[in-house]
Amino acid sequence: MEPIVRAVDVGRGNTKYVTAVDGAEIRCAAFPSEAHPTDVAVSGETWTGRRKTVGVPVAGLIYEVGPDVHLAADVYNSRVLQHDRYCELPEYMALTLGALHFMRVDALDLLVVGLPVATFKVRKVVTALEKRLASRHVIGRGREVTIAKVKAIPQPAGALMHFAHTNNCVANMRKERHLIIDVGQRTFDWIVAQGMQQIEKRSHSVNRGMFDVLHAIADGVSRTLGIDFRDYELVDRALRDGRKPVIFQREYDLAKHMPLARKIAEQAVAEMQHYVGDASDVQNIILVGGGAFFFRKAVKESFPRHSIQEVKDPLFANVRGFQIAGMELARAAGTPAKVVDVGEAGDE
């Protein structure tokens, strides 16, 4: 029987996972990286029907996770994955197991997950995570999943794998040097790689991601309006759509807060340059991640002699690369990986 391989990328903003592989197409889904704890069973029933969430038991509590998790939210912000060791939190485990629940699998031969570059350098953390996940877990609604083996890799390494395979340039890229920049919700990650091998001393991450951008803008709105404004999702949508957010029933112009927000992106790129210099020895600079759209200008200004390459659906670049890496590991072990269509998130 062919081994079953899956990939999950628990980011600070979103949890991404593979739903199906059809030839060269890797289909994915995502839900917010929010986990709401309770000490009672989660019904998820509302007057309009069942919300698309699941209650996952972890460490004596039940964490509600899933696409409709905002319907379970209270005044507390449950986006708690904001420090470097977030993979050790019960919320991280709940989000990972929630993704497996929505995949509707009962057993995995290999699960591939990702970590920020700085965290990946701490080998004892990586080893502990792989050991903790490689077990039998309850994943909600009376279901269980058994994971035989887990492989953690640096998050930008997934984007490198995805880019190489999507552009059919694996052979050429094995001969070249690359800089892969992954702009996440909380972490700005990068790796320098020779071929598919990471150059560790030139790769790292800093906590200057989209969360910091949104926080700076929200602080500016708070000062201007004299309120405690923390609707980060509203600001995020406004930046992505190029529209003014509506606050107190009026459009609010974010332009006055943009210079400080742009400075955060510039600071992140400047820290990266301490490690990569002017990138004169780099043939490919690849920009991915959910915050790529906002950091693009700072990256381009810092590397004016390079062409900055991006991928379609940058949010899913890492998890698609994780899936490719897992399938290659399975092939190297002597058996091709099996990935069956598992439907969309929240189908149950």
Automatic annotation (TrEMBL):
Actin-like protein N-terminal domain residues are 7-158
Segments forming domain Actin homologue MreB-like C-terminal: 180-301
InterPro entries, alphabetized: ALP_N, ATPase_NBD, MreB-like_C, PRTRC_protein-D
**A Pfam family:** MreB-like_C
Top-level taxon in the UniProt lineage: Bacteria
> Which protein are we looking at?
PRTRC system protein D
